[in-house]
Each structure stands twice: as C-alpha cells, then as structure tokens.
Amino acid sequence: MPPGAQMSAWVTQFVGSVPAFDDFMRLMVNDFFIPVTICLILLGLWVGHPDPTRREHLQRTVISACIAIGASSAVVELINLHQFWPRPYELLHSANQAMQALHYPSLDPSFPSNVATISFAAATGAWLGHRKAGIILYVLASIWALSRFYAGMHFFVDIAGGAAIGVLTSLITTKVLMPRIEPIPTLALRLARFLYIA
Amino acid sequence: MGTTAIEYFSFVAIGSLGTIQIAAACAGLKGLSFFSKPLAGYIFGVLAIIGAFCWFFATENRNTPSEIEGMQQVGIILAGAMAAYVITAAVSSLLKYRLSFQETTPHPRQQTNPRGIETLKETTLIGAIRSILKRKKHEGR
After folding, report:
1. What are the pLDDT digits (tens) for B27-68?
2. Contact call for B8 and A32, based on CB within 8 A
3. Considering just the CA atoms, what is the radius of gyration of chain A in Å?
4. pTM to 2 decimals?
5. How many CB atoms lie within 10 A of CB A23?
6. Spatial CB neighbours of A120, under 8 Å, sequence gap ≥ 6
7. List of E strands, A74-175
8. Phi, psi of A49 (to 5 degrees)
9. Domain segments of chain A as ranges
10. Which residues, 6+ apart, have CB-to-CB distance to A156 below 8 Å?
11. ipTM score of complex
12. Which of A64, A85, B37, B129 counts the most CB atoms within 10 A of its CB?
C-alpha cells in the first residue's frame, strides 16, 4: 500500500452520500471537461490582449505552457516504466465502488497522476506569464486532480507527486529551456504572424 | 474517425469560436469579430461556449472509455481550434465586407517582422491578404 492509502479509503466512502456533489464530481473527473476549459483559456491568452507587445509575451507564455505539458508527459512515461503500486480501486472496496459510480477503470499506472502532472504544468506555465489566468488554471487543476482522488482513481500521493512533477517541469521549461532555445520561439511566432494566427 | 472523435472536434471548434469572439472583443480585433459592438461579441462568445459544453455533455455519458487517446486528444484540440479560427476569419470577412477594402498600415520590415493579427484591428483577413498582394503588385512595377 502506498503512503496515505487510508485517506483514499476515508474519502471514497462518501461517494453516494450527496448525489448533487457526485454529479458535480462526475463532470469534473471527466477526460474532456477540464482539459478543454484549460485549452480555451490558453487560446484566450493567445489572442485576447489589445497591446501587441503584451500579446507577444502572452503567446510566449502559451508556447512555454504547451512545451511544459509535453515535457511533463514524457517524464510521466519514463516513471511509468516502473509500476509503484496498483490503483486504489484495485485494493480498496470503497474506492472500487466510487470508481464504478463516477468514472471507469484505467490501464496506466497509478503513480504519478498524469492528470495532475499535465494540468499543473499548464497552470504553472500560465501563472509565470499571467498571474490571474494562472490562478484560474491552478483551481481547475486542483479540482481535476482531487476529483480523481475522490473517484478512487488515484491515491493522494499520486496526485501530489504528479502536481510536483508538473510544476517543476514547467519551471525548468520556462526559466531554463525557453531562453536557451532562442531564436526558435521567436521564429515560430514570426511564422505564425505571417499566417495571421499570432 | 469515430463518432466520439467527431463530436469532440465539434465541441472544441464551437468552444474555440466562442473564445475567439470574446478575445477579439477584448483585443479590439474588428476584422475577427462578427459584431461591431464588443458587448455583442462577449454575449455571443459566452453563449457559444456554454452551448458547446451543454451539447457535448448532455447528449451522452462521457465518463466511459473512449476511442480517443492522449495524443489524439491533443491533435483534435489543435484541429478544432484551427478550424474555429479559419471559420471565424472567413465569416467575419464576409460580414464585414467593407472593412476588407480598408488600407492597412504595413510594418516597415513586413517581410521579417509581420504585424500578424494586429492587422486585424483595421481590416479582415481577406482584406489583409488583399493589401499585401496589392503592395507586392505595386513593388513589382
């Protein structure tokens, strides 16, 4: 059993107690709702500023966030070569009930949570360029990750570990990688402007 | 492409279209907005986004294993956003036909540092392409 496994047993027992909350979590745990919301916010950052200098800064922020999502996914793939422990629903009866009520079984390893990794990577990338958008994305990322915990899909250590990987990867991408790969982002933006998409 | 993938693409495209209308209203991009008043753009955008979400999630239970894997989801999101942008540019070019004949202010180094969507504050996408072709024709003489 991973550390803090009792937390999963405790939280998943509440599934079924408040139907309205379960309906909300069923929507949040979904594979499409929050990822699309995050993408629409990033699209809004890409297009939506009246000042061209500030808009370019936000577009670089979005590029950085997208690269961070890719890089953090690659880190998760490497970690997934080793299976640390099974999913909560494979070990705990209450977690299995929760999973069946709210979501469906997943084939990939429990640790780290891919959902937490990519959503926190996107949120950190956005936060480094636009604080308000970043805070909104952090809230969405937290809801998505915690909904997976509530649904018995992940242990708490899985989502905490995934969030840490996402944040760290995004910080390294923005602060270390992006300055070093110039002029590639500048040329990419120039090409995008030539095509009227930036 | 399966039914879920097509529905997902449509969902992303409609949501993106709404987002672009809101962003165009914020940024003053008259050539991308369908409306002359920003408030109309905001309202349309919000309704499009809410409509897309309601349609996608109300029509079917989406908490089931789907045919769409991670990288496919990324591809569909990018395709949906691009489709929304192309549709937005085409529709606004038609709706704001007169704006397409507005002369744009070229950047001194247009070849190496194009203005991009900043041009769409003055004209539509069709108008921007038309201006460039006209300038090249004059330079060629």
Report:
1. 999 999 999 999 999 999 999 999 999 999 999 999 998 888
2. yes
3. 18
4. 0.94
5. 11
6. A138, A141, A145, A162, A163, A165, A166, A167, A170
7. none
8. -110, 135
9. 5-194
10. A4, A7, A8, A149
11. 0.93
12. A64
